[in-house]
Design the sequence.
């Protein structure tokens, strides 16, 4: 089947009660959605500790994210939640601090051309196939873990000039999974304005511990390089960390402090591997359920690559593989909700949005909006060859955000995804595991609560070459 409706949490018939919303959102932000959420232009939720507006209408989305972005900074609650992991990075800061950091980060990325990092990406993809080739043929395997490993390995190679071992990858995966699972439990008492007596102290402690494990791992690589750079011995590395060490504030001429450097690398690590890993794992689930699309992808990869490894110029030639990933980002956007906070009172549609109110832009809802997409819940990568989908892409597609805070690593992520998917469909075939359907949950990213298991089978030509 080339078209089908993949799994997603069944929406409630009507808006949840306060009690149901409290207990439902402890597990996933998606559990509080109801049928009308997928067709409304703007919704309103009043909680004891929060005035929240869900904005789906494209002109309002542009107002919040592009035209008046300065009046809708990142939400302070999001900053508090992520600070143990990301510190004062560009993902959480606002105003002049964010502008200074972004200018310095842009310097670093201007020096890091995609063509230069492609060999590092390709080396990580080759290491991935070596791991997969060792698996028993036809095994039901959790590709969530493997996609986390390969994308984290790519980030380690391109940022730190280090490879990532399987043991380290699993430790990071486990720590971040714990951090994500605890996020709703920490935020909910604030949203419902519960007394401090009900503060989830144990969840906060465990969350801080998980964040500390990830940061300690990164600090171990950064500290020697930082100290050497401060002593005038920068070394011969030509990676992203080297460019971050050289970056200076245009106003003051100062570079990043050690703590700031760790914050920014932690942000790049999270944004660069977690979001890509999520989307790639969902891609493999989708193509496992659509053998006709998968065989066309294989044929495309073989036509472009033959039996060789991809070159930099090859990736853009595989239009179906691009469209499969584009459709995955539509159905399972890695970041399902962008939280902003109004700095002044203004009117949106017929509602008065007060200063301090929360304004949420939800790619999860916009990408599945009944008025903005044809057959919104269906997996159909061929839709992007139609005029209607091209119109939808212009106004209702924002997996990387929009405006001044658009993801600076979007092209990096797209190149990485094209390479990994082409490498995988060239060598393997993926089949579903019906007894283990994934369960999408919305936390910091859209992941499956029970992993994503598919059967991995070597294609005949691959099996013949494998010793």
Sequence:
């Amino acid at each position: 089947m080339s078209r089908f409706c993949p799994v997603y949490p069944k929406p409630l018939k009507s808006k949840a009660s306060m009690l149901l919303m409290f207990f439902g959102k402890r597990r996933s932000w998606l559990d509080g959605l109801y049928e009308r959420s997928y067709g409304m232009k703007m919704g309103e939720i009043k909680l004891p500790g929060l005035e929240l507006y869900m904005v789906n209408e494209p002109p309002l989305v542009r107002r919040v994210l592009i035209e008046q972005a300065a009046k809708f900074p990142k939400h302070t609650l999001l900053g508090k939640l992520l600070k143990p992991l990301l510190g004062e990075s560009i993902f959480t800061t606002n105003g002049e601090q964010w502008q200074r950091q972004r200018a310095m980060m842009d310097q670093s990325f201007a020096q890091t051309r995609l063509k230069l990092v492609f060999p590092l990406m390709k080396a990580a993809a080759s290491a991935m196939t070596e791991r997969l080739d060792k698996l028993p043929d036809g095994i039901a395997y959790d590709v969530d873990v493997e996609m986390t490993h390969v994308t984290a390995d790519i980030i380690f190679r391109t940022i730190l000039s280090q490879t990532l071992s399987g043991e380290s990858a699993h430790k990071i995966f486990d720590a971040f999974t714990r951090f994500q699972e605890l996020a709703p439990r920490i935020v909910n008492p604030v949203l419902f304005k519960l007394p401090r007596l009900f503060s989830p102290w144990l969840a906060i402690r465990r969350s801080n511990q998980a964040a500390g494990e990830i940061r300690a791992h990164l600090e171990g690589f950064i500290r020697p390089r930082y100290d050497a750079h401060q002593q005038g011995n920068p070394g011969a590395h030509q990676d992203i960390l080297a460019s971050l060490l050289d970056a200076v504030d245009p106003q003051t001429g100062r570079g990043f402090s050690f703590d700031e450097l760790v914050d920014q690398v932690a942000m790049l690590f999270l944004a660069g591997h977690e979001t890509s890993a999520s989307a790639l794992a969902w891609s493999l689930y989708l193509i496992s359920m659509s053998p006709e699309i998968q065989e066309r992808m294989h044929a495309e990869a073989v036509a472009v690559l033959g039996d060789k490894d991809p070159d930099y110029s090859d990736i853009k030639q595989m239009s179906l593989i691009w469209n499969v990933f584009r459709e995955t980002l539509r159905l399972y956007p890695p970041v399902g909700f962008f939280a902003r906070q109004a700095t002044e009172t203004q009117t949106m549609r017929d509602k008065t949005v007060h200063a301090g109110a929360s304004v949420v832009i939800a790619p999860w809802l916009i990408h599945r909006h009944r008025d903005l997409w044809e057959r919104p819940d269906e997996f159909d990568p061929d839709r992007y060859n139609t005029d209607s989908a091209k119109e939808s892409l212009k106004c209702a597609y924002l997996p990387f955000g929009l405006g001044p805070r658009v993801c600076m690593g979007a092209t990096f992520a797209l190149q990485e995804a094209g390479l990994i998917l082409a490498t995988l469909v060239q060598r393997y075939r993926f089949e579903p595991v019906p007894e283990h359907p994934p369960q999408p949950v919305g936390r910091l990213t859209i992941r499956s609560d029970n992993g994503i298991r598919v059967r991995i089978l070597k294609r005949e030509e691959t099996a013949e070459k494998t010793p």
Summary: The radius of gyration is 22 Å. The longest helix spans residues 258-288.
